[in-house]
Each structure stands twice: as structure tokens, then as C-alpha cells.
Amino acid sequence: MSRALQPDEELVELDAEAVRSWCARALDALGREREEIDAINVYPVADGDTGTNLYLTAEAAHRAVEAVFAASAPDTAETVRAMAHGALLGARGNSGTIFSQLLRGMAAVLARGRDGDHLARALAEAARAAREAVAHPVEGTILTVASAAAGACAAGGGLVRVARDAHEGARTALAATPGQLDVLGRAGVVDAGGRGLVTVLGALLETVTGRTPPDPGTAPLPPAAPREECAGDGGPAYEVIYLLEAGDAAVELLRSRLDALGESLVVVGGDGLWNVHVHVDDAGAAVEAGVEAGRPHRIRITHFATAAHAPAPGERARRAVVAVVPGEGLAGLCAGAGATTVRTRPGEPPTEDELADAVRRAHAREVVLLPNDADLRKTAAAAAERVRAEGVRVALIPTRAAVQGIAALAVHEPGRSFDEDVVAMTAAAGATRYAELAVAEHRSFTSAGVCQAGDVLGLIEGDVAVIGQDLTETARTVLDRMLSAGGELVTLVVADDTPPGLAADLERHVRHGHLAVDTTTYHAGAGAPPLLIGVE
Fold first, then answer.
1. In the chain, what are the helix, strand and coil shares in percent, each to the nearest 5?
2. How far is CA 419 from CA 241, 281, 338, 397, 427, in A?
């Protein structure tokens, strides 16, 4: 909802309805300009998704604001806090994460006052907080544009004057970014994140004046700019993002550890809840650092395309795969194969919004979605339908286990037609029987009899088939039952907390008892079931 002003009417205070209107206008503006911003994204990685990430972050902020209005009649403080908190929870990418911290910085000041002077101080606090969140601030980026906006309106004044000065200062700074960052100058573009911030400030100016803001002045993308001139080539292989519940002291240690692991480190938030963003080669180590610091969740790992195969900035890839996986080891495995991954933790399945966002992040015209869980099929179908309405061709392969997803990904071939690829991946998944070992949490009746708390359960195709006391022995029994119906390849996916030598023991067991069967072992890392088994 956008608040409509009467002709020649201007706001003097940024009340709750005005903040709501600003949030809605910013989302609309980023939606209109998303592809244009994506097209100029060459820093820190030329992956053409800055506009999309800013839009998704603003969308999360908008949902949070609308939720508080649906529940009550919030004041300005409640509204700006909801906007900032929503952005924190939904932040995407480097620029989206910084944007969420800008909103958090503004919220801290706007909660105390609604006039122009408070807005000027809010923008100053936003710029300070954002720089503090970035491990190694770089000029010529969204940080520069934010600082310029704050500096331009530092004298304060009425609400309209402050909003206009901030917007003009941001536009001027944006135009100068190609001269501050070599990669922008070589590509002939302004900074994409800064461009998005000018759009958001333009939405603020429109909110308080009722008039369309001046054009941001984006520099055009040159024809066929060579990819090797863009930042990110030869850089870290993965983008890792997660929410983290942790104390301040633990987060400071986490910053140091992640800074040593990679680059583009941004840690935003506070009061026990943080959003962590980093580019690394070892995605598992980045997630493990979060586990040691506190409780990470909503973990997203994205594999950056290589320079030789990635599309030009802003151009959608032809095809991508999105896979839901348990454990950071499997996430790294699938991301290494080119898939966009969504991490799931015990008791925390991904939501429809998270799956839809992952499909969008894949930034492709055609997407294959692998839910890898029978219970996620309806959620995944709803997410796929939402993104299809946005013009993306999405095929949902109803994989019921991670090993089926691995089998499907192994035969994925982007060079063939979409239909042929989906048929081949579906056939590979369907030909993979699956099993899982779990530990019973309490006494229960199962299809294999009564189990007690602590018993090892062997589930084949989702049903309890074996109840045992020893993980290794139960795994052998499950393997033998599955292979009694035939098979040529066994896939073992082993979690971190299993007995040492489990995988080696099971590989020997298969070799000795089933001479014609090959075995492949993957390590799932933390957060996965003790053992997943696939038989093809």
C-alpha cells in the first residue's frame, strides 16, 4: 500500500503510514529496475544478481511491515523496526545484506523522532553501521553512496529538504563510482549496489513529496563486455549466507575466522540475531565456523559460475538446478556440481518462500527443482508455481531423498533439451532406492515392531524395516536387504557424528558380499542423518 499525497502536499513527518508507503514504493521501484541493476552487476562478483537480491531483501522487509499493520496499528518505531528486522531475516547477497544493515541503522534513530533532522541523523547512522559491518570497506560501492547521501543532508532541515539532499548526494556519488573502482570503469557501469540504494532513496523522496524522483543516471552497459574484465573471476567459489543466533563475543570471533577463510565478509544484525555473508572456497568451513559460534539456520550456499561458462552480467543462464540438502558437506558437493542449494536442518524444513527465492537466485530461464524429501513435495510444488508465474520454466522432480537428488544431478546435462534433461534426471532418481539410519528419540510402535529410545532404526523407502542397537550392524542389515533385490551401485552419505570407520566397514561389506556392486561414499558433514544409503 502506498500513501497518496494531494497535489502540492508534502510530508513534514515520517510517520508509520509514511514508512509503510516508502517500503512499498521501494519494493515496486526495485521490481521495475531489477533487471537493469542485474545487468550492471560486476562487483564484487559478476554474477548478475544484485538487483534481484535487493528486490528480495526489500520484499522481506515489506512482508514484515504489512504483518505488523495486519496485527495492530503500529507507531513509527514499531514500523521501522519491522522493516529492518524483515530485511535482516530476508537479506540476499552482498548488497542485500548491507542494505539490511542500512535499514537497521536508520531504525535506531527514526524510532526516536520523525522529522527531517532525525532522518538526517538516521542516514548518518545507517552509513556508519553499514561500514562497520563490512570487514574491508571498498570505495566506489554502496557504502560510498550511503556515506555521500548522509553527508549531503548532514545540515538537516525539513523532511523534504533532507530527503531531496540525500537523494541528490547519492546520485552524484553513484555517477562517480566508475572512477573509484577499476572494475566498474573497465566495464563502463556504475556500482549496482549503489544504484539500488539510489532507487530506495528515490522511493523515499517520492513518498514525502508525491513526485517522481529524477532518473538515477545509470551508465550504460557496453556491448559484449569481456567477462575476464569483471571482478570475481578467479575469486572464491562459493557464496555462503546464513542467519545466526549468537552473542556479541562469539560473533567477533566468527568475524576473524571468516575473514581468514574468504572475502566480501559482511556480518549484520545484533541483539542475538545476525545475518552472515561471505565468499569462500571452503563452504563447509564457513558453516562450521557458524556452528561453533552459535546456531546457524536458513543456510544458503551458491556456487559461482566460472568465467568460461557464466552468462554476461544480467543475462539469465539457460538452465540451473536447485537442490534441498541436509548437511554442509552435501551442500558443498551439490554446489560444486553447479547446483544452487538450500540447507535443511532437523525439524526446520525450508519454507515455500525460501524455495521460491532459491529458484530465483539460480537466475536461469529453466530450473530443475529437487526437493529430496517426500514431505516437501507440496511446498516445492507451490514454490515452483509461484516462480513459473514470473516467466521461469520450472520442472519439479519429486525426489524423496538426498541420494535420489545426487543420482539426478549426476546425469544432468545442460546441453540437451530441457524435456530430455528432466526425463533423464527423473529416471535416474526413480531408479535409486533409498534408505536412512536414524536413532529413536522415544519408545514407539513401528512397522518393524516396538522400538525403544536410543535404538537404531533402518528405514527403507521411508518405512522402518530394521531395529537394532548398533549403527554399523544395522547398516549392514539394511544394505543386505536392499541388495537382495539387485543393484549395481551403492551410494553412502555419512554424517560427521558416525562411528569412525563406518564408511570403510560398509564398503568392505559390499565388496565381500556383492562382488559386482560398486560403492561411492560422500561425507554429509554436520546436520545430516547419521547415514543415507542409495542403491541403483
1. 50, 20, 30
2. 32, 33, 19, 12, 12
Residue 446 backbone dihedrals phi, psi, to 5 degrees? -130, 175
* Cell 543420482 -> residue: 407
Q: Can you list the positions of beta strands (E) in 281-414?
A: 295-303, 317-326, 340-344, 364-370, 393-396
Per DSSP, the three-state class of 428 is: helix
* Whether pLDDT at 67 is above 80: yes
Torsion of CA 453, 455, 456, 460, to 10 degrees: -80
Contact (CB, 8 A) for 19 and 200: no
Q: Residue 437, SS3?
A: strand
Contacts of 124 (CB under 8 A, 6+ apart): 150, 154
HSE-CB of 529 using CA atoms within 13 angstroms: 23
Nearest CA to 66 among 23, 5, 110, 4?
Answer: 23
What phi and psi values does residue 142 have, to the nearest 5 degrees?
A: -55, -30
Amino acid present at 286: A
Q: Regarding beta strands 393-396 and 364-370, do their DSSP bridges make them parallel or antiparallel, or are they unpaired?
A: parallel
**Residue 255 has what DSSP assignment?**
H
**Residue 322's beta-bridge partner residues?**
340, 369
pLDDT digits (tens, 9 = 90+) for 390-432: 889 999 999 999 899 988 988 898 888 888 889 889 999 999 9
CA 149 to chain centre: 28
Contact 181, 191 (CB under 8 A): yes
Sign of CA dihedral 409, 413, 414, 416: negative
* 397, 403, 408, 412: CA torsion to nearest 10: 130
Question: What are the tens digits of pLDDT across the range 234-288?
Answer: 678 888 898 899 999 999 999 999 999 999 999 999 989 999 999 998 888 888 8
**No. of H helices and E strands in the chain?**
18, 16
Average pLDDT over residues 169-178: 95
Provide the whole-model pTM: 0.62
Q: At what angle do helices 50-71 and 16-39 cross, to 10 degrees?
A: 160
Label residue 471 by pLDDT band (50, 70, 90): very high
Dihedral of the alpha carbons of 87, 92, 95, 101, in degrees to the nearest 10: 30
Angle subtended by helix axes 93-110 and 142-152, to nearest 10: 30
Q: At what angle do helices 159-176 and 116-133 cross, to 10 degrees?
A: 30
DSSP 16: H
Name the residue with cell 523534504: 160
Tell me how far apart the alpha carbons of residues 180 and 190 are, in angstroms, rounded to a whole number.
10
Closest CA to 228 of 364, 363, 42, 49: 42
pLDDT for res 308: 34
Confidence of residue 227 (pLDDT cuts 50, 70, 90): very low
The number of beta carbons lying within 10 Å of the beta carbon of residue 121 is 21
- Are the C-beta atoms of residues 358 and 322 closer than 8 Å to each other? yes
Give the pairing of strands 273-280 and 262-270: antiparallel
d(CA 289, CA 251): 10
